[in-house]
Design a protein that fits this description.
Jelly Rolls, Rossmann fold, six-stranded antiparallel beta sheet, 9 helices, 15 strands
Length: 369
């Protein structure tokens, strides 16, 4: 009998340990709210599908890859406040994604922040599992004070549905005093770096960093490998309300395309939004371009053509245009990228540091902020 008793005791101890480690709530105690009924930030305009960046009707006439990437949820976040001790999330992804230079949390996960003492502080992430239907506790064991949260959506996947779960007896609502001022908007058009490659999590992409630092509504219109200044995109951008446009779109087009498209693109935007400052950003220098001379020379020519465009616009008397050189963007220690091109969290922090004073200067001088 003694061996049997010892075995039973071991199982009881193991059961007690597992039970103690298991969250002390049941699925029935969680009440879910459709995130689309709360406050969405980071959207250029209203769209038929809540969690895509551009409405499909407005991407007609644009390249197929833009139409696809416009459905990604990069830069979109949900603002809400709750006094729940726990926050659970359910989200449905359009598909499974594999990207060798990004974490699953970055391309398909969720990233939660809380407004504490007037500043946004990281809380936790929701890690995507295999498949498209996701369900996860993102944080628990909090106190029951009312707090404001911001939940960032995936950078390189599409969200088809999103629910936020709180305790059944807790309150969840749109913030009474949102920590993001949606009346002040920065619109950033650019490449994969703008979209968020290769941030470790959605909140570390530089548009999201700028959003939390400024408290403004920052619109992420980054299109991986596909920001080539098409005329249709200029027409669209001119219809997006903004207090500042940041054009970080130089990495993707060839020097010849920059020569052909940059001037008419910026001129069109300037003529249709004459009072809104435009910040033109050179391409980040590829770190492997210091060794691959063909690549390095291409980047130098991209930036050379960009400077020529900027100087031409100034000579013609176009106002409210600012310029940031490549050397100012990510430091000179060559440690800010994951693959020589796309940025780590360190790189994103540095590029946001470089943009912040120029954005503030442009908006203060031109818009009075």
């Amino acid at each position: 009998m003694y061996p049997l008793v010892k075995t039973c005791c071991r199982w009881l101890v193991l059961y007690a340990i597992l039970f103690a480690a298991t969250p002390t709530f049941s699925q029935d105690s969680i009440r879910y709210t459709d995130a689309a009924s709360l406050l969405l930030t980071g959207k250029a305009k209203a769209t038929r599908e809540a969690y895509q960046r551009m409405d499909s009707a407005e991407t007609r006439g644009m390249p197929a890859v833009i139409r696809t990437l416009a459905r990604r949820s990069a830069g979109i976040a949900v603002l809400f406040e709750t006094n729940s001790n726990i926050i659970r999330v359910r989200w449905k992804l359009a598909g499974e994604v594999y990207l060798p230079n990004m974490t699953p949390i970055g391309h398909s996960g969720l990233d939660l922040y809380c407004l504490k003492a007037g500043k946004w502080q990281f809380v936790s992430v929701a890690r995507p599992a295999r498949g498209t239907d996701q369900d996860q506790v993102i944080i628990q064991h909090m106190d029951s004070s009312m707090k404001q949260f911001m939940l960032y959506l995936p950078l390189y996947n599409s969200v088809e549905a999103l629910q936020i779960g709180v305790q059944s007896d807790a309150l969840i609502r749109t913030p009474l005093q949102p920590g993001i001022n949606k009346d002040k908007r920065i619109v950033i058009y650019g490449s994969s770096v703008v979209q968020g490659a290769s941030a470790s999590r959605p909140g570390m992409a530089y548009p999201a960093l700028l959003q939390r630092r400024t408290g403004y509504d920052v619109i992420n219109l980054g299109f991986s490998g596909s920001a080539k200044m098409e005329a249709a995109m200029a027409v669209y951008l001119a219809t997006v309300p903004a207090d500042c446009y940041v054009l970080d779109c130089i990495p993707n087009p060839t020097p010849d395309l920059i020569r052909e498209r940059a001037y008419p693109f910026i001129k069109y935007l300037r003529e249709h939004q004459p009072a809104v400052p435009i910040i033109l950003v050179e391409t980040v220098f590829r770190q492997n371009g210091y060794w691959d001379r063909q690549l390095g020379q291409k980047v130098e020519k991209q930036n050379e053509e960009t400077r020529k465009t900027y100087e031409r616009l100034l000579q013609e008397g176009h106002r409210h245009i600012y310029y940031i050189r490549s050397a100012a963007l990510i430091g000179d220690d060559h440690e800010a990228t994951i693959d020589g091109i796309h940025l780590t969290d360190l790189g994103f922090s540095r590029i946001s540091d470089a943009l912040m004073p120029v954005i503030r200067k442009a908006m203060r001088e031109e818009k009075g902020f």
